[in-house]
Specification:
alpha+beta, about 50% helix, about 240 residues, globular, four-stranded mixed sheet, single chain
């Protein structure tokens, strides 16, 4: 989403450019001419957590300073090549660093002028910042879901009275080439006949056994058998 906005002002924007410095470091996530007036800018995008130990009183400002310290040698090398280094910091609740606000405003102004000026700069900036905020918050939600403990099937049954199987475990029946044929085979007919001849008690015990198997190993079979016998006994 960030790159999409810069493309409106700079058609040649690129991501993860290599070879900007003499080392293996890649200080730029985005390289564009639409971030700083008069020269190219290497933008290093970062989302900082306010709950981190290094956040201090302002997570965005702390992360901004860390980026400048980390790339201090690369920054001098970039400056000799006419490239400005600009950390682009948001907190995990989508609050931007002041440098981000200035950079986006310059890019939105350039985008409006290069696309006929049909849209007002504040409107472009508002929509762009809105989409970036949504992307940051979605990332935060995905990371939160990834670390939450997952309940077992038995826990789901205890809480809600049902246990949903994952989609991957649900297998659809295999269909033959003559899937449209409604006739059944001799084996199917024999199985249906056996089911019709079965005594009601046998059917009840089979269903009870199937239910017990789904509940696990903590079921007293003798008590369950006595309960089934009581249900089947004539009134």
């Amino acid at each position: 989403m960030l790159v999409d906005g810069f493309k409106l002002a700079d058609a040649n924007v690129c991501t993860e450019p290599a070879g900007l410095t003499s080392t293996a470091e890649r200080p730029a996530d985005i390289l564009t001419t639409a971030a700083v007036p008069g020269r190219r800018a290497a933008l290093d995008v970062c989302v900082a957590s306010p709950n981190s130990a290094s956040a201090g009183g302002d997570a965005a400002a702390a992360a901004f300073r860390r980026k400048l310290r980390r790339y201090r040698r690369a920054i001098r090398e970039l400056a000799r090549a006419g490239i400005a280094f600009r950390p682009m910091i948001w907190t995990s609740d989508a609050r931007p660093h002041p440098a981000v606000v200035r950079t986006l405003r310059f890019a939105a102004t350039l985008a409006a002028s290069r696309n006929g000026g049909d849209s007002a700069v504040p409107a472009i900036l508002a929509r762009w910042r809105h989409e970036i905020s949504i992307a940051v918050l979605r990332r935060r939600a995905a990371m939160s879901r990834a670390v939450l403990p997952r309940r077992s099937a038995r826990s789901e049954w205890l809480l809600r009275g049902r246990s949903e199987l994952p989609v991957a475990s649900i297998r659809e029946p295999q269909l033959d080439d003559d899937a449209g044929d409604d006739t059944c085979s001799d084996d199917d007919t024999e199985h249906e006949a056996e089911a019709d001849d079965a005594a009601p008690g046998d059917v009840m015990m089979a269903a009870t056994a199937a239910g017990v198997e789904s509940l696990g190993d903590d079921v007293d079979m003798e008590e369950l058998g006595a309960s089934s016998a009581a249900v089947l006994a004539p009134a």
